[in-house]
Write a structure and sequence with these properties.
- With 229 residues, the chain is of the alpha+beta class.
- It has one domain (38-222): CpcT/CpeT domain (Lipocalin), CATH 2.40.128.
- Helices cover 18% and strands 32% of the residues.
- A ten-stranded antiparallel beta barrel has the order 1-2-3-4-5-7-8-9-10-12.
- β7 and β8 form a beta hairpin.
- The radius of gyration is 27 Å and the shape is globular.
- The relative contact order is 0.12.
Length: 229
């Protein structure tokens, strides 16, 4: 009888000790495992952001193909350390009309868990006030991320290709437009170390193309670079 009681007490103590140690294990922090912070997230955006920076021109393309106009693309990173995102100010203008940009945008980049990079497009109030900010960043001192307007549905999901470049596009039917009789815009983007290619296709409700980039889109080469270099 005493042996049976002793065995029961032993089993009870073993069970209690097991629960005690289990509670210590679950309550203790897991060593060496931390959620990725802003620096880790931003690190995944390279080399994309290094490539998507600088001065680019489609002048060479326009020289050999009359369908294209010589245009310039200027890209400069702004607001370093502003949250988990990275921001790029973009300005496009005709080579002969540098003082009057035809497009100004701010792009917000973030890394997704599946390895893709989300590029959100935002517009700014009174954009003409910031013309030339690529060479005079102080023009943006009065602008904050909270003042920007997101072009919902016009986000581009970028994926790195086997050759190293990045490729992405907007989701078909999600990026709305009311320009030139079109209702939806599909944008394609390729980013390499020394080139940026942009292709736009705009469609009406009947899925007929109303306007868009000629051929395979505008090819902007980094200034000082030529094809084959």
């Amino acid at each position: 009888m005493q042996a049976t009681r002793k065995d029961s007490m032993t089993q009870l103590m073993a069970a209690l000790l097991g629960l005690f140690y289990a509670s210590l294990i679950w309550a203790a922090p897991v060593p060496f495992v931390t959620a990725p912070g802003p620096h880790a997230t931003q690190g995944r955006l390279e080399p994309l952001l290094s490539w998507f920076s600088g001065e680019f021109s489609s002048q060479e393309q326009a020289t050999f193909d009359a369908r294209f106009t010589s245009a310039e693309l200027r890209l400069v990173e702004i607001w370093p350390g502003e949250g988990p995102f990275r921001w790029v100010y973009a300005e496009q203008f005709l080579t002969e009309r540098a003082q009057r940009p035809f497009r100004q945008r701010i792009y917000r980049f973030s890394s997704l868990p599946d390895g893709r990079i989300l590029m959100a497009e935002l517009t700014m109030p009174r954009a003409t006030d910031f013309a030339g900010a690529w060479r005079r960043p102080e023009l943006l001192d009065s602008l904050t991320p909270q003042q920007l307007s997101l072009r919902e549905g016009c986000e581009i999901w970028l994926t790195r290709q086997p050759g190293g470049e990045y490729k992405g596009q907007t989701r078909v039917g999600h990026c709305a437009t009311d320009f030139g009789g079109a209702t939806t815009l599909v944008q394609y983007l390729w980013i390499g170390p020394d080139s940026v290619r942009l292709l736009d296709r705009a469609y009406d409700n009947g899925a007929h193309q109303r306007w868009g980039s000629p051929g395979e889109g505008y090819v902007y080469l980094r200034k000082g670079m030529r094809r084959g270099e």
